[in-house]
Amino acid sequence: MLFIPESPRWLLQHKKTEDARKALRWLRPDEETVEKEMEDIENAIKLERDLASGVSVWDMFANPIDRRRTILSVAAVSTQAASGSMYMIEKPSSNLDYSWEAYKTYFFEMANVGNAFENSCIVTAIGVVAIMINMSIITRIGKRKLFLAAGLLVCGFSQLIIAVVYTVHLGTSSTGKSIVGLSIIFNFAYNGMISTYAWVSGGELPSQRLRSYTFGLAAAIGFLGAWLCTFTAPYFINPDSLNWGPRYGYIWFPSCLVAAAFIYFFLPEVKGRTLEEIDEMFEQRLPARKFETYKCVGPAALEATLKKGKLEEKVYRRHSSDSQKATSENVEEKS
C-alpha cells in the first residue's frame, strides 16, 4: 500500500492536478490516454457537484437508476454471506466444544482425519494462495460476473456433496477425506472468486454522488447477513441442538444457486470500465447483458443526455399540471 499512489479522482477533487496526472500515469502507462481520462474525470467531477446538491440517503431509492444501482451493490456484497462462507470458514459464536477454532476445524474433528488443526491451517493457506493468484489476474481476466457466478456454483456444489456424503456414509474414513478435500475446494473458490469480487463489484456499481450511502448500506446488509449466518449456524450443526453437522450444506446449496442466477442475469460486467463509463451505461438504462459491448460516448454527451432528461421531466410536469388545472376548471364549470 505504501507504493500505490493516491486516487487521481480524489486528487483532482482536492485541486491537486499535477499529482493526479502523475498518479494516472502510474496507473495508465499509455500517455495518449492520460490527458483524455483527466479531462473525463474533471468533467465527471463537475457534473457530480451539480447533481450532488442536497443529496440524502433516500436518494438511493428515489429514481429507478439509483435504485437499481443500490440493489446491485447490496446484492454483490451479500454474495459472501449467501455462499455459506460464514458457516464453512468463520468462527462460531456458540458453546461448541471447539469454539476457539473455526467451523472447518470442528468439521475436521468430526471427520477424524489427521490433525484437525493442521488440516484447518492447510485450508487457510490455500485460501491465501487463491487470493494471491486472484491479485495477479484480476486486471487481466477479472470478469466480475463470471468469477462470482462460477465461485458461487463451486461453493454450492461443494457443500451439497459434503452434505450428501456425510448423510450416506457417516463416520467412515472416506467421508472424512471428502470433507477435507471439498473444504479445500470451497475455500479456494470462495477466496479466489467470491470474497474479492464481491467487494470490487459492490464498490464499482453505486452512483458516484451516492457512493458513500450506497456502499455503506451494502456493507451493513452484508455484515448483517454474515452475523445472522454465524449466529444461527451452531444451532444447526451442534450435536446438542439439531445435530445437522455438515448436512447444513443442504441449506446453502440452493442459496448459492439463487445468488449465482441473480449474478448471471442481473449483474452488469464492468471490467475495464472507468467510473464515468459505468455512470453513462446506467444512465442509458442498458440491460446487464449489453454493458460489456456498449460503446461509451463520454461525459460531455452524458451531461447533455441528463440535461435533456431533466428538460423532458420539466415539460412533463408542466403538461401534467396544466392538464390537472384544466380538469379542475371543467369540473367547476359543470358544477
Q: What does it look like?
A:
- The chain is an all-alpha fold and 335 residues long.
- It has 13 helices and no strands.
- Helix 2 (17-27) packs across helix 3 (31-51) and helix 8 packs antiparallel against helix 11 (249-266).
- The radius of gyration is 25 Å and the shape is elongated.
> Overall 3D geometry?
elongated
Strand-residue fraction? under 5%
Low-confidence stretches: 91-102, 310-317
Helix share, percent: over 70%
CA-atom Rg in angstroms: 25 Å
Number of strands: 0
Q: Biggest sheet: strands, sense, closure?
A: none
Organism: Penicillium hetheringtonii
Subcellular location: Membrane
Main location: membrane
Region (Disordered): 315-335
